[in-house]
Amino acid sequence: MARASPSPFDVAYEGNTIAIIKLVEEDEMLKTQTDNNGRMLLHWAALGGHHEIVEYLLSLKVPVNPQDDTNMTPLILAASAGREKVVTTLITEGANVNAQTIDGHSALQYAASKNWHSICLKLIEKGADVNITDNRGATPLHRAASKGNVEIVKMLLAQGNRLKIDQTDAYGNSALHLACEEDRHSEAKLLVSHGASLELTNREKKTPLELCTPALARQLKALREKPE
């Protein structure tokens, strides 16, 4: 039995630029057609990290912010997958850096969670909201602190007063609560040294210190008591 030909969406994801150009030239409607998940060729090329295809499609005036059936945009997909060249191309062409999925996830939240440092930096430089929240109230700082992505935490803290360091999620947890709960020593100490509250209580009436191991709690108390 002969193998079925790959769909145009598969071709875009795999990065066959010549084949995509040929397919679109044969059927111009293809450039904005969607698959069963509401994704265009642009979504799949972005997810695959193929900036040449992305640039080609955008040169045909394909929308830069199309949403699939979960409101994923090409930029969110590229940021989540660590596709820096594609992220750069999309931002340059006007992609919305604060677009969110139906669950409230943004490009910056995904990049912060997956430790894509240069992508986070690029998004922030282009106006990404450092306090953006998903449907559970989690911010990029919550994600980076809980995952142990210390360089992302440093980058977010470097935003100074723009960053709401004690912002709480739907469970009343600050980023420090989560860092303590996950025993993320470096991240917790960074947060405390930048003024994160040790007294803030979550919905279970617990402070960050009450979620710490005894060793981390001692370090955080000592850090808070350290003279300026």
What does this structure look like?
Helix content is 50%, strand content 0%. The chain has helices spanning 8-14, 17-26, 41-48, 51-59, 74-81, 84-92, 107-113, 117-125, 140-147, 150-157, 175-181, 185-193, 208-211, 214-225. The model has no long low-confidence stretch (mean pLDDT 96).
| Name of the CATH first level of the largest domain | Mainly Alpha
Low-confidence stretches: none
**Averaged pLDDT:** 96
Question: Based on CA inertia axes, which overall geometry fits?
Answer: elongated
Based on helices, strands and strand pairing, what is the structural class?
A: mainly alpha
Give the DSSP E fraction (strand runs of 2 or more residues).
Answer: under 5%
One letter per element, helices H and strands E, the order comes to HHHHHHHHHHHHHH
If you consult CATH, what is the topology of the largest domain? Serine Threonine Protein Phosphatase 5, Tetratricopeptide repeat
Oligomerization: single chain
What is the CATH superfamily label of the largest domain?
Ankyrin repeat-containing domain
Using only C-alpha atoms, the radius of gyration works out to: 21 Å
Q: What is the count of structural domains? A: 2
Percentage of residues in helical conformation:
40-55%
Second rung of CATH, namely the architecture of the largest domain: Alpha Horseshoe
Number of H/I helices: 14
What is the strand tally? 0
* Largest sheet data: none
Q: What's the end-to-end separation, in Å?
A: 75 Å
